[in-house]
Amino acid sequence: MARRERSRLPAPERRRQIIEAATALVAERGFWGLSMQDVADACGLTVPGLLHHVGSKDGLLIAVLEHRDAEDHRAIGDPPPSDLRALCAALVRRNATQPEIVRLFAVLAAESLAPDHPAHDYFAARQQGVLDALTALAKPVSARPEALARQIIATMDGLQLQWLRAPAGTDLVAMWEAAAQMLFAGPTASAGRPARSR
């Protein structure tokens, strides 16, 4: 039965199915609570059949994370908005449509603080990459671009946690827009325009 079902899907479609099933399970249970048997069952596969597509549990986790990043890049646009405030707004709007994925990243980001977590290096590199990208975009609008980039990341992450805790009564996009008014105001930053020289 499992063999017949497996033959119906081309390898890329099967891999996408596996990633989607694993994404939902990790968002619900965290990586340490993830069972390869549960992922296999969700896809109508045996565990060896599952491993044929992803290599290992660690490989599956990295595939889930990389798939999410690729999907976000496609949704936001290629190239993405070059205006810092517009990019942040696009990211928040995107995240507001996918609470399960945001929960997945929140859970894994916390778990991966442990040095032996398989996603530890991935999240460390991703955090630095995001910081570098936002810092570069902040240079035209802030005298302290790295500080602004760090404040944006902290604000976005904090608002998302509040939203995940109480999604029914929380408007993530509205909360971000209110925070952005403060982040992009003042003598060193403006709403997407270079700060005026004195």
From TrEMBL:
InterPro entries: Homeodomain-like_sf, HTH-type_TetR-like_transc_reg, HTH_TetR, Tet_transcr_reg_TetR-rel_C_sf. It comes from the Bacteria. Residues 12-72 form the HTH tetR-type domain. Keywords: DNA-binding, Transcription, Transcription regulation. PANTHER family: HTH-TYPE TRANSCRIPTIONAL REGULATOR BETI, HTH-TYPE TRANSCRIPTIONAL REGULATOR RUTR. Residues 35-54 bind DNA. This is TetR/AcrR family transcriptional regulator.
